[in-house]
Amino acid sequence: MRAALVVGLLAAAFSGGCSSKKQPPVATHSALADSADQIMYGARFKLTDQGLERAQLEADTAYFFDDNTRIELENVHTTFFTVTGAKDAVLTSKFGTTNTRTNNMIARKNVLVVSEDGRRLTTQELIYNQQKNEISSDSAFVMTEPNRRVEGIGFRSDPNMKNIKILKGASGFQKGVSTETAPAPAPAAASPGIGVTPSAGASRSARPPISTDTTKH
After folding, report:
1. Which of 106, 60, 113, 50 is nearest to 87 (CA)?
2. Residue-range definition of the domain harbouring residue 196
3. What is the pLDDT of residue 35?
4. pLDDT, mean of residues 98-115
5. In a domain, 23, yes or no
6. CATH number for the domain harbouring residue 95
7. pLDDT of 172-216, one tens digit each?
8. Does some domain include residue 156?
9. Contact assessment for residue 92 and residue 62, using Cβ atoms and an 8 Å cutoff
10. Where does residue 66 fall: left (phi above 0), alpha (psi -120 to 50 degrees), or beta otherwise?
11. Burial, 118: exposed, middle or buried (Cβ in 10 Å; 0-12, 13-18, 19+)?
12. Within 13 Å and on the Cβ side, how many CA atoms surround 76?
């Protein structure tokens, strides 16, 4: 009986010692991996138009579906190029989907676009149309650049955001602009422009490239 008790105590002590050890971390498992036709790590793709490279897309992980025509991406990094091959802007997002037939891409969650000359746009979902070389969204967004901020719901733009059309709810402000400007034109001659909310030391923004679209969608 005593021998059996000693063995039992030793077994309990050994078991307790094992359970106290730190377990190795378990890698996060994506549900996409269970149904994907193929998985690629450190993926890189070129989005071209008539042989001209317009963007280079990279992702930590790519999951291929539908005979490799639909690719689901994690941790997306996309670089846009001009027609001359110069770097134009960079897009990053948590997730993305690209279609190999059209080369179009949808970026989702924590989407950020940064142009080479300092403009930054944030939104939760964005579509890149490769044929039009256009980025667009129907979601709320904020665009900032030195001394200027614009926001709204939905937009259409070139990737470097030099010409952006806001669909609705446009507002913003511009800092460092003198309020002693020429008298405003008569209301009948005023251009539609964007709605602007002035702040202290700021005047209404009238930058031509930004326009609003009142067409219902």
Report:
1. 113
2. 34-178+192-212
3. 84
4. 94
5. no
6. 2.60.450.10
7. 988 765 334 344 455 444 334 443 333 344 434 445 455 555 444
8. yes
9. no
10. left
11. exposed
12. 32
Length, in residues, of the chain: 217
Q: Which of 120, 106, 111 is nearest to 93 (CA)?
A: 111
Burial of 57 (0-12, 13-18, 19+ CB in 10 A): buried
Residue for token digits 């689901």?
72
Reported confidence tier of residue 121, pLDDT bands at 50, 70, 90? very high
Long-range interactions of 142-151: CB distance < 8 A, separation 24+: 143/119, 144/119, 144/120, 145/118, 145/119, 145/120, 146/118, 147/174, 147/175, 147/176, 147/177, 148/172, 148/173, 148/174, 148/175, 148/205, 148/207, 149/173, 149/174, 150/194, 150/205, 150/210
- DSSP secondary structure letter of residue 85: S
Q: What is the pTM of this model?
A: 0.68
Q: Find, among 181, 160, 159, 172, the residue nearest to 212 by Cα.
A: 172
Tell whether 146 is covered by a domain.
yes
Q: CA-CA-CA-CA torsion for 186, 188, 193, 196, nearest 10 degrees?
A: 50
Residue type present at position 144: T
Band of pLDDT at residue 30, cut at 50, 70 and 90: confident
Query: Domain count of the chain?
Result: 1
Task: Name the amino acid, one letter, at 119.
Answer: R
In a domain, 18, yes or no: no
Say if CB 166 and CB 187 are below 8 A apart.
no
Both tokens of residue 1? 């009986």
